[in-house]
Amino acid sequence: MVIANHPIIAKAHTNIALVKYWGKLDNQLIIPQNDSLSITLDEFYTQTAVEFLPSLTADEVIFDGQVLSDQASLRVRTFLNHVRDLAGIDYRAKVDTKNFVPTAAGLASSASGFAALAGAASRAAGLNLNRRDLSRLARLGSGSATRSIFGGFVAWQQGHDDATSFAYPIDEQPTWDIAVVALVLTAKQKKISSRVGMRLAVETSPFYSAWISASQADFKTVKTAIQNQDFELLGHTSEQNAMRMHALTLSSDPNFTYFNADSIKAMNMVKDLRLQGIPCYFTMDAGPNVKIICQGADAERIAQYFQTEFGEEQVLVTRPGSGISISD
Ligand code: DP6
């Protein structure tokens, strides 16, 4: 194992879950309570450079040009410790990361962030992990990062321990024309992180066990829909699954929601479009932004409809993106 003598750069795209991960069985290893399934998106990504240097006495983390405080870089430094353990090295690292994702706005920047960090840090430390092992490593940073190692449609197999919980590709380069229209309704930092929100659901929602059985069924249905390229089945099931997840926030104690007034307006607009005969479905993660799953041929028309309501800048059309890439 040879530590790289120059910065290693990795680029990973974010992903949007069609069947959500919402709850952990193991908070340390980030073993989820259910299987989940996502689409990796081409427009939103993180690019991260990592170099381990004998001259450093502490890890140095630069995020979008700013040096992070010890508190802000804690998750990154904890993650680097996993990489050091795995590689058997002791050097501190310089991490320089740029996010091409509206941060903490429900566009899951921790997914692309920890996937890129896993790729760059492991190779910089001299490890040459295959994609399954990279997805296991990324999982230790953030659950959704597990899936961002792969492109297109990706599943995260729940597993039961570190060795068995990893992502795998279902259809890396979909041949059917799928698009996601992302509505950036606010770029403000969310009040309740997914980490805290899902823990509350596991510990307090009386609906939690129903969520597990429903989402395991949704997982099978969406997988079949992808295999058969059945857009309506995929869209309908994804929308139902998203609302089931959000029902967990409403039924937690204390209760909370990620919806704001514009989210509800946008969801109703999606239903109006369906009544007009345009097949499209919504999904939302741990933030107020709404993502609309549609067929590529309808994407521009749908985007225009939402641009009239929310403004041109707030509406982004994105397509399935590729998996991680890592420099030599
Ligand atoms: C709603 O991956 O951010 O986006 O593992 O605690 O870092 P941690 O959580 P995170 O949660 C993502 C939740 C979600 C659903 C999903 O992406 O599957």
How is this structure best described in words?
With 328 residues, the chain is α+β, with helices and mostly antiparallel strands. The chain folds into two domains: 8-172, Ribosomal Protein S5, domain 2; 178-318, Alpha-Beta Plaits. 36% of the residues lie in helices and 26% in strands. Strands 1, 4, 5, 6, 7, 8, 9 and 14 form an eight-stranded mixed sheet that branches. A four-stranded antiparallel sheet has the order 11-12-10-13. Strand 2 (24-26) and strand 3 form a beta hairpin. Helix 2 crosses helix 3 (131-139) and helix 5 (208-227) runs antiparallel to helix 6. The two termini are 14 Å apart. The mean pLDDT is 95.
**The CATH C-level class name of the largest domain:** Alpha Beta
Number of domains as seen in the coordinates: 2
Distance between the amino and carboxyl termini: 14 Å
Helix content: 25-40%
- Secondary-structure-based class equals alpha+beta
What do the pLDDT scores average to? 95
Shape: globular
User: Beta-sheet strand percentage?
Assistant: 25-35%
Uncertain segments: none
Number of E-type strands: 14
Give Rg in angstroms. Answer: 19 Å
> What ligand molecules are bound, each kind once?
ligand DP6
Q: Give the biggest beta sheet.
A: 8 strands, mixed
Number of separate helices: 8
CATH architecture of the largest domain: 2-Layer Sandwich
The CATH topology label of the largest domain is: Ribosomal Protein S5, domain 2
SSE run: EEEEEEHEHHEEEHHHHEEHEE
Task: Annotate the secondary structure layout.
Elements: E1 8-19, E2 24-26, E3 31-32, E4 36-53, E5 60-63, E6 66-67, H1 74-87, E7 92-100, H2 109-124, H3 131-139, E8 153-157, E9 166-171, E10 178-183, H4 194-204, H5 208-227, H6 231-250, H7 261-275, E11 280-284, E12 290-295, H8 299-310, E13 315-318, E14 325-326
Parallel strand pairs: 5-7
Antiparallel strand pairs: 1-4, 1-14, 2-3, 4-7, 4-8, 5-6, 8-9, 10-12, 10-13, 11-12
Helix pairs in contact: 1-2, 2-3, 5-6
